[in-house]
Amino acid sequence: MATVTEHEAQQIDKVNEAGRPPVVFVHGLWLLANSWESWATSFEEAGYTALTPGWPDDPVTVDEAKAHPDAFAGKTIKQIADRYVEVINRLAAKPAVIGHSFGGLLTEDADSPRCRWPLVPRRSAACCQFRSPRSSPRGRSSATRPTATGPCH
Questions:
Q1: β-strand partners of 23
Q2: Pairwise CA distance, residues 77 & 101, whole Å
Q3: CB 88 within 8 A of CB 11
Q4: Were 28 and a residue from 11, 70, 102, 112 both cysteine, which residue would form a disulfide, CB within 3.0 to 4.6 Å?
Q5: CA–CA separation, 37 and 25 (whole Å)
Q6: DSSP structure class, residue 38
Q7: Is residue 31 within 8 Å of residue 106, measured between CB atoms?
Q8: DSSP state, 100?
Q9: How many CB atoms within 10 Å of residue 113?
Q10: Angle CA 149–150–151, to nearest 5
């Protein structure tokens, strides 16, 4: 399995040079790293530096994924989790880690002793709903930063 891609290495360098709090986004099954683009933009506008690594050997685009669906086969949970631990261990500052669906499960492994930055979740993703300042049910939002709502807040 491939390790960190050139694009991800560039993202890591950008995060380490920015001096702003890093956020690592972890996608779930049947998604690609670019599924986080609007969230990454929202967090960057709010003062963070976003990192959107993919799973090992993932295609970059949906068209590539459709053309080569076999690229998703044969990966273990450990291989995928190891990839995120490798990315996180290259960061100069402790990141916030946000996972969606199966990506949320992977964030639990990022809290392992193998990880340079022990991550202690403050709130379970199951009780939080994040709202992007870019979207709302009516297409507009009064929020200027990503906000979390739910029974934990």
A1: 50, 96
A2: 14
A3: no
A4: 102
A5: 10
A6: H
A7: no
A8: -
A9: 5
A10: 140
Contact 49, 120 (CB under 8 A): no
Mean pLDDT computed over 37-58: 93
Q: What is the spatial distance between Cα 55 and Cα 25, in angstroms, rounded to a whole number? A: 11
Amino acid letter, residue 54: G
- Phi, psi dihedral angles at 15 (to 5 degrees): -60, -45
Both tokens assigned to 63: 């068209």
Sheet holding 22-26, edge to edge: 49-51, 22-26, 96-99
Report which secondary-structure segment, H or E, holds 72. Answer: none
Cα 91 from Cα 77, distance rounded (Å): 22
- Between strands 147-149 and 22-26, the pairing is unpaired
> Strands (DSSP E) along 34-112, which ranges?
49-51, 96-99
pLDDT tens figures, 87-136: 999 999 989 889 988 888 888 766 566 777 665 554 444 434 444 555 44
The burial of 76, by beta-carbon neighbours within 10 Å (0-12 exposed, 13-18 middle, 19 or more buried), is given as exposed
Give the pTM: 0.75
